[in-house]
Amino acid sequence: MQLFLPIADIPVNVFLILAMGAAVGFVSGMFGIGGGFLMTPLLIFVGISPAVAVASVSSHIAASSMSGAISYWRRRSIDPALAAVLLTGGSIGTLLGVTTFTWLRSLGQLDLLIALSYVILLTSVGGLMFWEGLRAMLRANRGKPVPMRRSGSHGWIHGLPLKVRFKRSKIYLSVIPVVVVGFVIGFIGAIMGIGGGFILVPLMIYVLRVPTSTVIGTSMVLTLVTMLFATMLHAMTNHLVDAVLALILMVGGVTGAQFGARAGQKIRGENLRLLLGLLVLAVGVRFAFELGIKPTELFTVRETGGGT
Amino acid sequence: MMTRRAFAISSALVLAATLAAGPARAEKLIVSVSNHRVTVTPNYSGEELVLFGSVEKDASTPANRNYDLVVTVSGPRADMVTRRKERRFGIWINTDSRQFLQVPTYLAIFSNRPIDAIAPPEVQRRQQLGMNNVVLTQRVGPDYADVVPSDPFRSAFVRLRSQHGLYRESSSAVTFLTPTLFRTGIPLPGEVPIGTYTVDIKLFSDGQLVTRTETAFEIVKVGFEQFVASSSRQNGFAYGLATVAMALMTGWMASIVFRKD
Question: Which residues between 130 and 169 in chain B have a beta carbon less than 8 angstroms from any beta carbon of chain A?
Answer without folding.
Answer: 153, 156-157, 159-161
